[in-house]
Amino acid sequence: MLPQAYTWHTFVEDFMQDFSAETFRYFAFAGLTFIVLYWLGKTFFFRRKIQQKHPERKHIWRELKYSLLSLTIFALVGVGVVACYRLGITKMYSDIHAHSWGYFAFSILAFIVAHDFYFYWTHRFMHWKKIYPYVHKIHHLSHDPTPWAAYAFHPLEAVIQAGIFPIMIFILPVHPLAILVWGLYQTFLNVMGHSGFEFFPSGFTSGKISKWHNTSTHHNMHHKYAMGNYGLYFNFWDRVMGTNHAKYNETFEQVTAHTQRMKAEKAAARKPAYQEV
Ligand SMILES: [Zn+2]
Ligand SMILES: [Zn+2]
Fold it and tell me: Closest ligand to 243 CA?
């Protein structure tokens, strides 16, 4: 049962708690990434920039505005989840010893795998031409996204994106700490995918194991071309369904080759111009 004293005050308190936690996480990850890559290391890291240009300020403000709107919606969904938890109708557990640590680790992994599946298929659904203009187009206004675009969604898309959370807590026994770990991983990967920079080394997208993990180039290409490369964490569903962009590997190698070439040029510049005998 919800406590008798569940009032507007409780609602506002839950909302503020959720909203501040989500917003803090967003600003910590996206803010730090932006400061390092777009301010302090603007010149130093430029060789790793996937699209060799910097976005206009007005695009950054739009990404920030829509992300804050999405975080408000996420917090409202969070309030609903907390209310269901208080009613005791979810499968969430508060005593960490109710299940083993092995199960705790499994629940985090299960959350990630399920979210990867959910994201891929809802994303493809949102690219359906009858849905796209009303739901997903806002996210694609960023053709060369910055870290601030991580949650730059239309409010309807924000509801869809948040949907995995209430679905999972009714299916899988999960501790709030496991949800927090998943949330941190999700934010990190999301910000990385929108960073506009590639940090994985050449050969990553063709490695036997590494090719199954997504890269920043993968999602950056999705924003550039608005087709192909629909996956989130893993390059599993895109491979299985044949939806990787035809030039994914080629583009990744071009981006990382650019990095290698700049490194080689720098190393050559440090060497003396003549050989001592
Ligand atoms: Zn995106
Ligand atoms: Zn898309």
Answer: 2
